[in-house]
Write a structure and sequence with these properties.
The chain is an alpha/beta fold and 180 residues long. It has six helices and seven strands; from the N terminus they run E-H-E-H-H-E-H-E-H-E-E-H-E.
Amino acid sequence: MPPTALIVIDMLNTYEHEDAEALVPSVREALPGIRQLLEHARASASPVVYVNDNFGEWRSHHGEILDAALAGRHRSLVEPVAPDKNSLFVVKARHSIFFETPLAYLLGQLEAERLVLCGQVTEQCVLYSALDAHIRHFDVVVPEDAVAHIDADLAGAALQMMSRNMSADVCTVEDVEFDG
Protein backbone atom coordinates (compact mmCIF):
# COMPACT_ATOMS: atom_id res chain seq x y z
CA MET A 1 0.00 0.00 0.00
CA PRO A 2 1.37 3.43 -0.88
CA PRO A 3 2.26 5.83 1.95
CA THR A 4 -1.00 7.34 3.21
CA ALA A 5 -1.82 10.65 4.89
CA LEU A 6 -5.08 11.51 6.61
CA ILE A 7 -6.29 15.00 5.65
CA VAL A 8 -8.80 16.59 8.04
CA ILE A 9 -10.61 19.40 6.23
CA ASP A 10 -12.12 22.42 8.01
CA MET A 11 -13.10 20.65 11.23
CA LEU A 12 -11.78 23.51 13.38
CA ASN A 13 -14.86 25.60 12.83
CA THR A 14 -16.61 28.30 14.83
CA TYR A 15 -19.90 27.55 13.03
CA GLU A 16 -20.56 31.28 12.74
CA HIS A 17 -21.56 31.27 9.07
CA GLU A 18 -24.81 31.27 7.12
CA ASP A 19 -24.83 27.51 6.45
CA ALA A 20 -23.94 26.46 9.99
CA GLU A 21 -27.40 25.32 11.06
CA ALA A 22 -27.75 23.13 7.97
CA LEU A 23 -24.22 21.74 8.44
CA VAL A 24 -24.16 20.96 12.19
CA PRO A 25 -26.43 17.86 12.12
CA SER A 26 -24.30 16.27 9.40
CA VAL A 27 -21.10 17.09 11.31
CA ARG A 28 -22.56 15.28 14.34
CA GLU A 29 -23.18 12.23 12.14
CA ALA A 30 -19.67 12.31 10.64
CA LEU A 31 -17.85 12.90 13.93
CA PRO A 32 -17.56 9.23 15.01
CA GLY A 33 -16.09 8.29 11.64
CA ILE A 34 -13.59 11.13 11.74
CA ARG A 35 -12.55 10.16 15.27
CA GLN A 36 -12.08 6.55 14.16
CA LEU A 37 -9.92 7.63 11.21
CA LEU A 38 -7.80 9.80 13.52
CA GLU A 39 -7.32 6.89 15.93
CA HIS A 40 -6.32 4.49 13.16
CA ALA A 41 -3.99 6.94 11.42
CA ARG A 42 -2.27 7.84 14.67
CA ALA A 43 -1.97 4.19 15.75
CA SER A 44 -0.29 3.35 12.44
CA ALA A 45 1.98 6.43 12.62
CA SER A 46 0.50 7.76 9.37
CA PRO A 47 0.71 11.53 9.01
CA VAL A 48 -2.34 13.52 10.04
CA VAL A 49 -2.64 16.89 8.35
CA TYR A 50 -5.30 19.41 9.31
CA VAL A 51 -6.08 21.81 6.49
CA ASN A 52 -8.33 24.53 7.73
CA ASP A 53 -9.90 27.75 6.58
CA ASN A 54 -8.61 30.86 8.32
CA PHE A 55 -12.05 32.54 8.13
CA GLY A 56 -10.45 35.66 6.65
CA GLU A 57 -8.28 36.23 9.73
CA TRP A 58 -4.95 36.76 8.01
CA ARG A 59 -3.12 37.21 11.30
CA SER A 60 -4.17 33.81 12.62
CA HIS A 61 -2.15 30.64 13.02
CA HIS A 62 -3.30 27.14 13.85
CA GLY A 63 -3.37 27.72 17.62
CA GLU A 64 -5.61 30.75 17.23
CA ILE A 65 -7.89 28.92 14.80
CA LEU A 66 -8.23 26.03 17.26
CA ASP A 67 -8.83 28.39 20.20
CA ALA A 68 -11.54 30.28 18.29
CA ALA A 69 -13.25 27.02 17.28
CA LEU A 70 -13.16 25.70 20.86
CA ALA A 71 -14.65 28.99 22.09
CA GLY A 72 -17.46 28.79 19.53
CA ARG A 73 -21.05 27.63 19.92
CA HIS A 74 -20.26 24.03 19.00
CA ARG A 75 -17.17 23.15 21.03
CA SER A 76 -18.52 19.59 21.23
CA LEU A 77 -17.95 19.21 17.47
CA VAL A 78 -14.36 20.44 17.65
CA GLU A 79 -12.93 19.03 20.86
CA PRO A 80 -13.16 15.31 19.88
CA VAL A 81 -11.19 15.88 16.68
CA ALA A 82 -8.71 18.52 17.84
CA PRO A 83 -5.13 18.14 16.63
CA ASP A 84 -2.65 16.37 18.88
CA LYS A 85 1.00 17.37 19.30
CA ASN A 86 2.06 15.31 16.28
CA SER A 87 -0.54 16.69 13.87
CA LEU A 88 0.56 18.88 11.01
CA PHE A 89 -1.36 22.00 10.00
CA VAL A 90 -1.88 23.97 6.81
CA VAL A 91 -3.98 27.13 6.62
CA LYS A 92 -6.11 27.60 3.51
CA ALA A 93 -8.18 30.52 2.33
CA ARG A 94 -10.31 28.97 -0.42
CA HIS A 95 -12.20 25.74 -1.03
CA SER A 96 -9.38 23.46 -2.17
CA ILE A 97 -6.77 22.26 0.32
CA PHE A 98 -4.18 22.78 -2.42
CA PHE A 99 -5.08 26.25 -3.69
CA GLU A 100 -2.11 28.49 -2.89
CA THR A 101 -1.07 26.39 0.12
CA PRO A 102 2.17 24.49 0.78
CA LEU A 103 0.28 21.19 1.07
CA ALA A 104 1.63 19.58 -2.12
CA TYR A 105 5.18 20.32 -0.97
CA LEU A 106 4.46 18.94 2.51
CA LEU A 107 2.94 15.75 1.09
CA GLY A 108 6.01 15.35 -1.12
CA GLN A 109 8.25 15.64 1.93
CA LEU A 110 6.10 13.00 3.66
CA GLU A 111 6.29 10.85 0.50
CA ALA A 112 2.52 10.44 0.65
CA GLU A 113 0.90 8.96 -2.43
CA ARG A 114 -2.55 8.22 -1.04
CA LEU A 115 -4.82 10.73 0.72
CA VAL A 116 -7.75 9.91 2.94
CA LEU A 117 -10.01 12.98 2.96
CA CYS A 118 -12.44 13.61 5.81
CA GLY A 119 -14.20 16.63 7.25
CA GLN A 120 -16.44 19.27 5.73
CA VAL A 121 -18.11 20.22 3.39
CA THR A 122 -18.59 17.24 1.04
CA GLU A 123 -20.10 19.22 -1.83
CA GLN A 124 -17.62 22.06 -1.53
CA CYS A 125 -14.17 21.77 0.04
CA VAL A 126 -13.98 17.97 -0.02
CA LEU A 127 -15.06 17.82 -3.67
CA TYR A 128 -12.65 20.52 -4.86
CA SER A 129 -9.82 19.05 -2.79
CA ALA A 130 -10.44 15.58 -4.23
CA LEU A 131 -10.25 17.02 -7.75
CA ASP A 132 -7.03 18.87 -7.01
CA ALA A 133 -5.55 15.74 -5.40
CA HIS A 134 -6.54 13.68 -8.43
CA ILE A 135 -4.91 16.06 -10.92
CA ARG A 136 -1.75 15.90 -8.78
CA HIS A 137 -1.77 12.10 -9.18
CA PHE A 138 -2.62 11.21 -5.58
CA ASP A 139 -4.78 8.19 -4.88
CA VAL A 140 -7.88 9.59 -3.17
CA VAL A 141 -10.03 7.88 -0.55
CA VAL A 142 -13.22 9.49 0.75
CA PRO A 143 -15.04 7.64 3.53
CA GLU A 144 -18.63 8.77 3.07
CA ASP A 145 -19.36 8.34 6.79
CA ALA A 146 -16.56 10.77 7.71
CA VAL A 147 -17.59 13.76 5.61
CA ALA A 148 -20.30 16.30 6.44
CA HIS A 149 -22.60 18.16 4.10
CA ILE A 150 -24.91 21.14 3.91
CA ASP A 151 -27.12 19.69 1.17
CA ALA A 152 -27.56 15.90 1.15
CA ASP A 153 -28.48 15.74 -2.56
CA LEU A 154 -25.46 17.76 -3.62
CA ALA A 155 -23.24 15.70 -1.32
CA GLY A 156 -24.48 12.50 -2.91
CA ALA A 157 -23.77 13.90 -6.36
CA ALA A 158 -20.33 15.08 -5.22
CA LEU A 159 -19.43 11.62 -3.89
CA GLN A 160 -20.59 10.10 -7.17
CA MET A 161 -18.46 12.60 -9.13
CA MET A 162 -15.41 11.85 -6.97
CA SER A 163 -15.83 8.14 -7.61
CA ARG A 164 -16.66 8.31 -11.30
CA ASN A 165 -14.61 11.28 -12.51
CA MET A 166 -11.65 11.25 -10.13
CA SER A 167 -11.27 7.52 -9.50
CA ALA A 168 -11.68 8.18 -5.79
CA ASP A 169 -12.31 5.23 -3.53
CA VAL A 170 -15.60 6.27 -1.94
CA CYS A 171 -16.04 3.82 0.90
CA THR A 172 -16.81 3.62 4.61
CA VAL A 173 -14.45 4.25 7.50
CA GLU A 174 -14.36 0.50 8.19
CA ASP A 175 -12.85 -0.04 4.71
CA VAL A 176 -9.95 2.41 5.20
CA GLU A 177 -6.51 1.02 5.92
CA PHE A 178 -3.40 2.95 6.83
CA ASP A 179 0.06 1.73 5.89
CA GLY A 180 1.71 2.07 9.31
